[in-house]
Amino acid sequence: MSNTKLIAAIDVGTTKVCVLIAELLDSNDYEIIGVGVSASKGLKKGVVVNMNEAKTAIREAVESAERSAGYEVDRAFVSLAGAHVEAVNSHGVVGISGDSIITQDDIDRALDAARAIVIPHNREVLHIIPRNFIVDGQEGIRMPLGMHGFRLEVEAHIITAASTTVKNLAQCIEDAGVVVEQFVLNPLASSEASLTDTERDLGVVSCDIGGGTTDVAIFIEGNVWHTAVLPVGGNNITADVSHGLRLPASAAEEVKIAHGHACTQEVDSSEVFLVRPFGHEQAIEVSRSELANVVEARAEEIFDLLLKEVKRSGYDSLLPAGVVLTGGTSRLAGFRQLATGSLGLPVRVSEPTNLRGLVDQVQGPEFATSVGLLNWAARESSTYVGLSSLNGYSENGSFATGNKSGQRMWGVIKDWASRLAP
Ligand SMILES: Nc1ncnc2c1ncn2[C@@H]1O[C@H](COP(=O)(O)OP(=O)(O)OP(=O)(O)O)[C@@H](O)[C@H]1O
Ligand SMILES: [Mg+2]
Fold first, then answer.
1. Integer distance in angstroms from the first to the last C-alpha of the chain?
2. Is there an atom of ligand 1 within 6 Å of 329 CB?
């Protein structure tokens, strides 16, 4: 195993922490050898609100994945979410000197120029993603490397996050014994695992609805054009069920999963189930369509917010591939039908496919983010990183604009593997 190259992913969700360890087989190909999932604690709407609780939950998931893989996790790609995340589109222009052949250095300079926007001191740049390159006025160039030209322009999608929120999460991960190799925005991570190339090219919304957040990414012409994290999710549905039926949160969660339905009209009005609300000695019968009314109202509100975000992006007429749903909430019965009606777009639910290794343990739409992180890690470790992200998270807790983080990752994997070699 001395040549084993390992990659690791940590998805710190509002309801679960999922750690995956994989052996890198080939460029973009890996086998999952370790899976650890723990119930998340100390997070609200995707953000750490209690450091000690969050650390404990992360450590538990890391140790469980390590036991299952038989390897230790040193470094990992980590998901980041929360309403503090903001994104803007920016433009950078540079002249090409010398023999007028565009080099990686020219691409980096163009991206640096796009990055030169005013960023408040309390925010960090998380990703700079090229959407489109323009060479001597010719638009729609996906990869200008090696092309002839005098003027290179780039349109880039720049994602920033609140520094303190990022540092808190990094601290929790480090206290759990793992260095953050790179933060990846949740919506970008889940779309890695959920979208097909055709959907990205045509125009599609990737929407991961978890417990505390709804992660949105719009892809058009193969690249990401818009991202957002909305602070709503399945926990809001559970809270409504808890209030409506006067049940503790854990019982409301069980009722939602066992009997919940997002389309009231699809539910047989004679169907009932038993629950024991606060103040009742005995279990009482509740009509399933009454429950569906509560679930549908909140699910509809989530889709309204999603639709508003899509309209706000200005790309709502450029989405023939519709919406691809992931996240645990998309498991809710009737959810896809309701989404189709509310959004007026084609909708499908996606879960990770074409995986190797411990496939059964990462089955389901709630694993899109963690599997997407592994896809991201595998790609970064085998290609130059300039087209997807420029940032690595340094050990001293500040972002380093390192455009060679893909190469750095190779070094890390090699170091890691040699230390772990028997
Ligand atoms: N079968 C199911 N039916 C309905 N809801 C479900 C089902 N399974 C899971 N959920 C809901 O999915 C949500 C958890 O999803 P997920 O695991 O994707 O969230 P997370 O990644 O922990 O949170 P987030 O990404 O929002 O921070 C919970 O609200 C849970 O109730
Ligand atoms: Mg999630």
1. 7
2. yes
Give residues with Cβ within 8 angstroms of 282, minimum separation 6: 276
Tens of pLDDT, residue by residue over 233-248, are: 999 999 999 999 999 9
Would you call 321 helix, strand, or coil by DSSP? Answer: coil
Region 116-122 average pLDDT: 88
Burial of 82 (0-12, 13-18, 19+ CB in 10 A): buried
Domains and CATH numbers, the chain: 86-162 (3.30.1490.110), 234-298 (3.30.420.40)
Residue 284 contacts by C-beta under 8 Å, 6 or more apart in sequence? 274, 275, 276, 277
Q: What tokens were used for 315?
A: 């790309």
Contact 400, 392 (CB under 8 A): yes
Closest protein CA for atom 8 of ligand 1: 328
Tokens of 6: 């390992």
The pLDDT value recorded for residue 2 is: 54
pLDDT the model gives residue 279:
87
Question: Which-ligand-closest: CA of 211?
Answer: 1
